[in-house]
Specification:
The structure holds 2 protein chains of 2 kinds. By secondary structure, chain A is an alpha/beta fold. Chain A folds into 3 domains: 4-95 and 212-262 and 352-410, NAD(P)-binding Rossmann-like Domain (Rossmann fold, 3-Layer(aba) Sandwich); 99-201, no CATH class; 265-346, no CATH class. Helix content of chain A is 51%, strand content 17%. Chain A is built from 16 helices and 13 strands. In chain A, the strands form 4 sheets. Chain A has a 6-stranded parallel β-sheet with strand order 3-2-1-4-7-8, sandwiched between helices. In chain A, strands 11-12-13 form a 3-stranded antiparallel β-sheet. In chain A, strands 5-6 form a two-stranded antiparallel sheet. The longest helix of chain A has 26 residues, at 199-224. Chain A is globular and about 70 Å long. Chain B is mainly beta. Chain B has one domain (42-316): 7 Propeller (Methylamine Dehydrogenase, Chain H). Helix content of chain B is 8%, strand content 46%. Chain B is built from 2 helices and 30 strands. In chain B, the strands form 7 sheets. In chain B, strands 1, 2, 3, 4 and 30 form a 5-stranded antiparallel β-sheet that branches. In chain B, strand 2 (59-65) and strand 3 (72-74) form a beta hairpin. The N and C termini of chain B lie far apart (56 Å). Classes of the chains: A alpha/beta, B mainly beta.
Chain lengths: 420, 371
């Protein structure tokens, strides 16, 4: 297997932490796996006037040094088609977030924030619901009434605050994207009142939408030229919804597109089995190992952990165990564990980066290994599958990206049946 | 509510949130809709002329044309080795090139025979190796292997013809999650596409344009994809058929022991110097169309051509000639000769063997895929 080129959109903290994870001397197998698959990383320069300014830009010199220390070649490519000739592409791009819109999203998020009773989300009663709806409308109307002023503040901040060498959008282009983000934010907030979404959907997705739609069009052009597409590992938040939007513009990318959704299932399984150890012993079911898989979306309260018996334990024992437990309590305990890293991170006490880096590394290594192997899957069936977002049908014609177990086969997603 | 129902409900809640979101976004911008997956049913048939395979006693080597400078190269390590390979084919699945070789024919009584399959990766780490073993007591192996395709790009089956059994068909999907498949007497029926009624001397097989041509009972039988015999197109031969070739127009050539070849029911006599026909094809020689054929190595070493008017000419009289192949595809006309010292491709000597450490190997056959 010839080593591959890994294309990267973005050069922010995610990629910086990914380099740290690779370089961590405690993790030689992971680094080795990466280095056995990748010999070059190619950054897409989409926001700087030339390669020189890109190379001098924030974070890049540090990231460059880290990759070089791993003996990985680093290049910068301004041409989208050339960049997309990489075998695997990681989209870790982060759009610029206009300050007034950011503040609006913050306010809406605060208003919509669910209350918890223990680990369970407290359902809003009618009074609370009406109050939230009213308050949400007030905040939006208030913003709307100052729309022109807010736009002016944002554009000035954007154009004057841009670092040296940045490409500056014209006011017209900026205005188009700004309005698109505002409209998306309004729609997302409206949904969030009625059906709970999460932090990534509400606070990050609206700003990524203009970028995603443009990128989808660019990818479509490559398809129209009959050129092959790389494996596309998408980390733009929220990754399942952003992948759905990307695939709506360019459906040809569906088999190659993966919404990277980090979730530390090993840890969650350990915690789960430890917590219910006593009750398992009491029922004589010590040998039952409860395994966890994931479905749903990569956002708070939208990811759904699924518990099933492992080690060929018969369904009857599983049912017997849960007849002694309140399943809803077990489930919400798990949800809490799934979200714990995110919650700690938001509180500023946790490190979510290791989990993200681990998931990304698994996706990079296994997708690379699978390329040009049409009759093998990676990881192999002796290993736990990956849990990321991939295309799942919702009716005969359409689908969306949802988390589920999968492997890679010849650079394509190989979905597995979700056990419930 | 049981555990399963509870989880289904939780999934539905999450799904409803996101489905509602996408629905609302699509009202604002038609580009933000639910994606529709396009069905990947287009079959990709690559011209495999740029990949040749040459076999020695127990190895098959890959010769390929470098896309950068069009030069021909021989891969250092054999693609297959260690078994008595008797036949091979190559094919493309989802853009990946594969080769498969049937083995088992041995002068020693062996308990198994089968098919080895690999992609054509350029180094050992990238090789994807799969094995089909048939555990039946037979001292013979597969005489022919081929590839059948369904609608989906991955729906590919490998077929092998065996003189004791008939035609075995293994869907390659069965090998996706494992490296090997062992077929024994209990599950042989599941994999038998067509059962031989009598034990045959040989069971030559040719798959051409998704049709199976099987040499059996002194005739070439055409099998459907379900393994049924199309009795209307049986082509009789006056001897045991050893090899079958089909040209692009559907003309069937069958090589038999006493040196006759048949183009459908029309006879061509190869000549006394050929004990049996090991290869034939249709092509142009000196501007005239004819049928090329070749005898077994020890008696032949000479390629011959028979023109339409039955005039016969020695086409390749070099005693060192071991095998040949003629590409009769619609857009290319190439000829490859395998001699004792190397390959001659389009009249150009490619000294792949002399220049390598493989000059001591006795290469016997060339295979080119793309059926």
């Amino acid at each position: 297997m010839g080593r591959k080129t890994l294309g990267i959109f973005g050069k922010g903290r995610l990629i910086d932490k990914f380099c740290d994870y690779l370089a961590d001397s405690h993790l030689p197998p992971e680094s080795e796996a990466f280095l056995s698959c990748v010999d070059e990383v190619c950054f897409y320069n989409y926001g700087y006037k030339n390669e020189e300014t890109f190379r001098k830009s924030k974070y890049f010199p540090k990231i460059y040094q880290k990759f070089k220390s791993l003996n990985v070649d680093v290049s910068v490519e301004p041409d989208f088609e050339t960049f997309m000739a990489s075998e695997v592409v990681v989209d870790a791009s982060m759009p610029s977030i206009p300050p007034t819109l950011d503040k609006l999203a913050d306010n809406l998020f605060r208003i919509h924030q669910p209350k918890y009773e223990g680990r369970r989300m407290h359902p809003w009663n009618k009074e609370e619901f009406d109050l939230i709806k009213k308050e949400s409308a007030r905040v939006l109307n208030d913003f709307w009434s100052k729309k022109e002023k807010n736009y002016g503040v944002d554009y000035r901040s954007y154009s004057s605050g841009a670092s040296e060498g940045r490409v500056i959008f014209s006011p017209e282009d900026y205005n188009r994207d700004w309005n698109q983000s505002l409209e998306t934010l309004r729609i997302v907030a409206g949904i969030d009142i009625n059906y709970h979404l999460g932090l990534r959907c509400l606070k990050l997705l609206p700003f990524a939408v203009p970028m995603l739609l443009k990128r989808g069009e660019q990818i479509k052009k490559i398809v129209e030229q009959g050129k092959p597409l790389p494996v596309y590992l998408n980390l733009v938040n929220e990754p399942c919804v952003s992948s759905t939007l990307l695939a709506a513009v360019c459906p040809e990318i569906i088999p190659k597109l993966v919404a990277v959704a980090s979730c530390d299932l090993d840890r969650i399984e350990t915690v789960l089995n430890q917590k219910y150890n006593d009750i398992k012993s009491k029922e004589g079911l010590d040998k039952i190992q409860l395994a966890v898989s994931m479905t749903g979306f990569h956002d708070n309260d939208l990811n759904v952990p699924i518990i099933y018996p492992e080690m060929k334990v018969d369904e009857a024992s599983f049912v017997k165990l849960f007849s002694k437990l309140d399943f809803a309590t077990v489930y919400h305990f798990l949800i809490g564990e799934v979200n714990r890293n995110v919650i700690n991170y938001v509180k500023g006490i946790g490190d979510i980066n290791t989990e993200v880096s681990r998931s990304l590394l698994s996706a990079v290594v296994n997708s690379c290994k699978s390329i040009d192997k049409a009759y093998s899957v990676y990881p192999s069936i002796n290993n736990r599958p990956l849990y990321n977002g991939y295309f799942q049908q919702i009716n005969e014609k359409q689908g969306l990206f949802m988390i589920g177990p999968h492997r890679f086969r010849n650079g394509n997603v190989f979905p597995l049946v979700v056990r419930i | 509510m049981n555990v399963s129902e509870f989880m289904q409900e939780e999934i539905m809640k999450a799904k409803t949130s996101v489905i509602t979101l996408i629905n609302e976004l699509s009202k604002f911008n038609s580009g933000m809709a639910f994606p529709v997956k396009s069905e990947k049913k287009v079959r990709v048939d690559l011209d495999l002329w740029n990949d040749l395979f040459i076999s020695s006693d127990k190895s098959i080597y890959h010769v390929y044309q470098d896309v950068k400078d069009s030069s021909w190269k021989l891969r250092e390590e054999p693609l297959f080795s260690g078994r008595n390979y008797s036949c091979m084919t190559s094919f493309v699945v989802d853009g990946v090139k594969y080769a498969a070789a049937g083995y088992g024919k041995s002068r020693y009584r062996s308990a198994d025979f089968g098919i080895d399959i690999t992609n054509l990766a350029d180094d050992e780490n990238g090789r994807e190796r799969k094995y089909v073993n048939v555990n039946l007591n037979s001292n013979r192996g597969f005489d022919g292997v081929g590839v059948l395709r369904g609608d989906d790009v991955y729906d590919v089956s490998i077929v092998g013809s065996h003189p004791d059994i008939g035609v075995v068909k293994v869907p390659l999907e069965e090998l996706v999650e494992k490296d090997s498949l062992t077929i024994d007497s209990t599950d042989l029926r599941k994999y038998t596409l067509y059962e031989n009624q009598n034990k045959q001397q040989h069971a030559p097989l040719k798959v051409h344009k998704n049709k199976l041509y099987l040499g059996q009972d002194r005739k070439v039988k055409v099998l459907t994809l379900n393994g049924e015999v199309d009795s209307e197109v049986e082509i009789p031969a006056p001897g045991n058929i050893k090899v079958i070739e089909v040209d692009n127009d559907g003309n069937v050539f069958s090589g038999i022991d006493n040196g006759m070849i048949y183009r459908n029911r029309e006879e061509f006599y190869a000549g006394k110097e050929f004990r049996s026909i090991t290869k034939m094809c249709r092509g142009k020689f000196e501007g005239r169309e004819g049928v090329f054929f070749m005898g077994e190595l020890e008696h032949g070493g000479i390629g011959s051509v028979m023109f339409k008017d039955k005039e016969q000419k020695k086409a390749y009289s070099d005693k060192g000639l071991v095998d040949f192949w003629y590409n009769n595809s619609t857009h290319k006309k190439n000829i490859v000769l395998l001699t004792k010292s190397g390959l001659i491709i389009d009249n150009q000597i490619v000294n792949l063997l002399e220049d390598s450490n493989k000059s001591n190997l006795k290469f016997r056959q060339i295979y080119v895929g793309g059926n």
